[in-house]
Input
Amino acid sequence: MKQQTRALHSGYTKDTQSTMAVPIYQTTAYEFRDVEHAANLFALKELGNIYTRLNNPTTDVFEKRFAEMEEGEAALATSSGMAAIFYAIANAAEAGDNIVCAAQLYGGTLTQTAHTLKRFGIEVRFFDVHNPEAIHALIDARTKVIFFETLTNPSIDVADIHQICAIADKYGILTVVDNTVATPVLCRPLTHGVDVVVHSASKYTTGQGLAIGGIMVERKGLVEKLRANPRYAHFNEPDASYHGLVYVDVPLPPFTLRARLSLLRDLGAVVSPFNSWLFIQGLETLPLRMREHSHNALIVAQFLETHPLVSKVNYPGLKSNANYANAQRYFDGGASSGLLSFEVESFEKAKRIVDAVQIFSLVVNIGDSKSIITHPASTTHQQLNSEELKACGVPAGLIRLSIGLEAPVDLIDDLKQAFEA
Ligand SMILES: *Cc1c(COP(=O)(O)O)cnc(C)c1O
Output
């Protein structure tokens, strides 16, 4: 089945009322038929709804649909992208372990891994996403995850998925990949050998900047990588918190099952049924929108490349870009999503442009149908001096755009008048 069809139909068989739209099950709990039914549900002898912190029929449709779009086996939705990333890592690693991360990361992921996980006793070791060979030297017996982004935010690099997965597989280590910016429409990392995909649903999935949410998806057959793997003893030994359940012995996708039964149960970053419903509405048009975002961004990037005040344009869809080959290899049709950045000569010039645009909004978000502009040096990276800015690939005159669904000619006219400011 093609992505457009999955986006509209996967995971939903009409309920008892035959509603065309997926209903919102706005409920906390579910009635058990009798005590035996309740006992069977808790013992996983029978699968069914217990309590919305663990499962919900609306969220179930979102999870099933997203899993199919990622060509994975099962998914777990969470209250935010940051929660999905934390659960994916916490499902593999514990105090005393370490993870290996690409240095080109979303800001929240950088602080979660470098600061919060560190306080939980999980060490992070960074590698340059363009130099995966450096991973070998970072791995030891306590390495539990190799984490990277397919299309990085905000640096806009494209990872060589095969190369990184080949290294991870050699050591039997799980790969966890953030596919938020590429989306399952442009890239399906699980089909390239990745083990677990995570997303912020707050971006392209909702598509209109309507809700915060996240999701993780497990690849088909992941149980074989976990079974008898000494790195993941907790999947192979009885879980004392779930009456001795051994995750690899249950005929259910083990990574998702453990994240649900253990992490979602105990830490509780559950998505609301209403937000799941919004994400389902977003998915219906995701294939259409990603084509349009990519098309518009390429046109704007090509305009910027010819502008005399622009010294550099970062967009993987441009032939001049260092990531072009990886984008052609891993993204459907080489389409490269809606994120791009460009450099002007100075901090002051960048500020004047950002202040002068009319259609673009100054917002710290991406993936909205409305176009967004940000100036990292004066906002997200404000506390860094010019040397530090250069080191993390954020020059003072760098402007980031999230290209929306407006007519590209209007976006170009808006930028043209802003350049004159
Ligand atoms: C926004 C974002 C996140 C965090 O997601 P939230 O839903 O805001 O918690 C993680 N990764 C990437 C690439 C993002 O763009």
Notes: Residues 80-82, 106, 108-109, 149, 153, 178, 180-181, 200, 202-203, 212, 214, 366 surround pyridoxal-5'-phosphate (CB under 6 Å).
